[in-house]
Write a structure and sequence with these properties.
By secondary structure, the protein is mostly helical. The chain has eleven helices and no strands.
Length: 223
């Protein structure tokens, strides 16, 4: 990559890093005790209890302040001007989503998630309520994922996101992005506590694993 190409990335740093933040949240509904109880469509929703208890966070996720930043990338095909973080959440499984940035998120999610899983679905017995996080070799601990622990850590995550997204909305172009990103990704490690898929044997993939892979594809594609 030439120096001039790197300068293009530097000039668009805020928009690219804000897109990365959104990608980290594109299926954060999976980090929820109700997802482990079988409400698997939470990955394309904003959990109802979030809207009730963290109304500012709900607004920050649904308002299109992000789209104005992404529009500054100047990529017409993204059609991003009116998009919110929630638009990437609700569209991340839809290859026919109406906006280019949504479809890009869907493609990155499919690559990170493993689009071939659907072909093997009949071999995957589901778990509900009592869900184990397995290892890649199929070892499972004696205790299932603690639903109360997920609930407790989820509340901490919501409080963190409410404050950090508020800061980004109000002053994204003056944020110390290195410090912000380090702190943000450190918090995303909470996704390691639960599974991205409750079915065996693919319950060896954490929410963090699947999200991080999707983020990498999404960010690279935008760059």
């Amino acid at each position: 990559m030439s120096l001039s190409s790197l300068q293009v990335l530097a000039n668009n740093r805020e928009a690219l890093l804000l897109a990365e933040v959104a990608a980290w949240l594109h299926m954060f509904g999976k980090f929820h005790e109700d997802f482990l109880r079988g409400k698997h469509n939470l990955d394309i929703q904003i959990p109802p209890d979030l809207v009730q208890s963290y109304s500012l966070l709900g607004d920050l996720l649904q308002q299109d302040w992000t789209g104005e930043v992404w529009e500054s990338l100047g990529i017409r095909e993204l059609d991003a001007k009116e998009l919110s973080i929630f638009d990437l959440i609700k569209g991340h499984r839809n290859p026919k989503a109406p906006h280019g940035l949504q479809r890009l998120m869907q493609d990155a999610h499919g690559r990170g998630s493993g689009t071939e899983k659907g072909a093997l679905e009949r071999f995957f017995p589901k778990q509900e309520e009592t869900v184990f996080l397995s290892t890649a070799l199929g070892y499972e601990p004696s205790q299932p994922i603690d639903l109360e622990m997920v609930k407790c850590e989820r509340q901490k995550l919501y409080r963190f996101l409410q404050e950090k997204l508020r800061v980004l909305r109000n002053s994204y172009n003056s944020v110390n992005w290195k410090d912000f990103r380090d702190e943000f990704i450190a918090m995303m490690n909470v996704f390691r506590l639960s599974v991205a898929d409750t079915r065996r044997p693919i319950n060896d993939v954490t929410v963090f694993d699947q999200t991080a892979a999707s983020v990498a594809f999404f960010k690279a594609a935008l760059a």
